[in-house]
Design brief:
Hypothetical protein af1432; single chain; globular; about 190 residues; mainly alpha
Length: about 190
């Protein structure tokens, strides 16, 4: 139980660690990893339904996909091009899994590996959900005047795989981000 409790505190790091890619574009207070992982998990659930793959597996992948970043940090794409971040994530996940009950730890390591290898339908959907979450964030930053976030949208357009993710990206790009329009009652 002591190790599980330690792992819970380790997860708190994700609530305080900012996503590095946004900082490179000049965003002074970028989103934190935990916020990204939460929205990516919700997106993954919906995308899995649209693509008719195992929703629970996609959600588990997305729930865990950034956990190794508590130990290796969040690397932006330029930094990651100099390192094998997938290998680092798998090594960190293997060490983190020792803090978990064996069954969960083994699944955790397997899900990280599957997500990084992108060979299964669920991993492809999970990766697309991860990218779609970044696209929504990029659009939010773009709406708020961070013009360099357009580069993220350009890159995401090139890497999405599933038909549903591609359609959703078009809607994200067209959106003005004001989700609350029309919800207010005239007083």
């Amino acid at each position: 139980m002591k190790d599980i409790a330690k792992f819970f505190f380790e997860l708190g790091t994700l609530k305080r660690t900012e996503r590095a890619g946004w900082a490179v574009t000049g965003i002074s207070k970028p989103e934190v990893i935990a916020a990204h992982a939460y929205r990516a998990t919700v997106i993954g659930y919906m995308l899995a339904e649209l693509e008719k793959v195992d929703k629970d597996k996609v959600m588990r992948m997305l729930m865990f996909h950034d956990v190794p970043e508590t130990r290796i940090g969040d690397l932006h794409k330029v930094a990651a091009s100099y390192l094998n971040s997938g290998e680092g994530e798998e090594k960190a996940a293997a060490d983190q899994s020792k803090l978990m009950p064996t069954v969960i730890g083994n699944e955790f390591v397997q899900l990280i590996r599957e997500f990084n290898e992108k060979r299964t339908k669920e991993a492809i959907v999970a990766r697309d959900a991860d990218y779609l979450e970044a696209a929504v964030t990029a659009k939010e930053y773009l709406i708020n005047g961070y013009k360099h976030s357009e580069e993220f949208l350009k890159r995401i357009r090139k890497v999405l795989v599933t038909p549903s993710a591609k359609k959703l990206l078009k809607e994200i790009e067209k959106s003005d981000g004001f989700w609350w329009k029309g919800l207010k009652k005239n007083v």
